[in-house]
Specification:
With about 110 residues, the chain is of the alpha+beta class. Helix content is about 50%, strand content about 15%. It is built from 2 helices and 3 strands. The chain has helices at about 15-40, 75-105; strands spanning about 40-45, 50-55, 60-65.
């Protein structure tokens, strides 16, 4: 006795073509979403607003703002720490948004390289 699959199911040529078309559409959607995310800018501050950085979705630093009150020649290390904190937070936000937006396109599939 042979098992039969419901009509439209199975590995027939039509099903394979539909899967390929769906994969191509997903790839196009992913590329569009990536381009959209690269255009965004993320503005993050640290030290209670004393340091502000602007980073693009391409992870390029666009601007750094430093409140003159925080510039202390005796404590350059604190300024460096605030810059690092702001930059790392901006990168984290970019990563989170990328993950969230791309998973909405892929339906939660974990696709290597994305």
């Amino acid at each position: 006795m042979k098992a039969r699959l419901p009509k439209g199911m199975g590995g027939g040529p039509q099903n394979m073509q539909a899967m390929l078309k769906q994969a191509q559409q997903m790839q196009a959607d992913i590329e569009n979403k990536k381009a959209e995310l690269e255009e965004k800018e993320y503005v993050v501050s640290s030290g209670g607003g004393m340091v502000e950085v602007t980073v693009s979705g391409k992870r390029e630093i666009k601007a750094i703002g430093i409140n003159p009150e925080v510039v202390d020649p005796e404590d350059v290390e604190m300024l460096e720490d605030m810059l690092l904190a702001a930059l790392n937070e901006a990168m984290r936000q970019i990563e989170e948004e990328e993950e969230r937006e791309l998973s909405s396109v892929t339906g939660g599939l974990n696709i290597p390289g994305l």
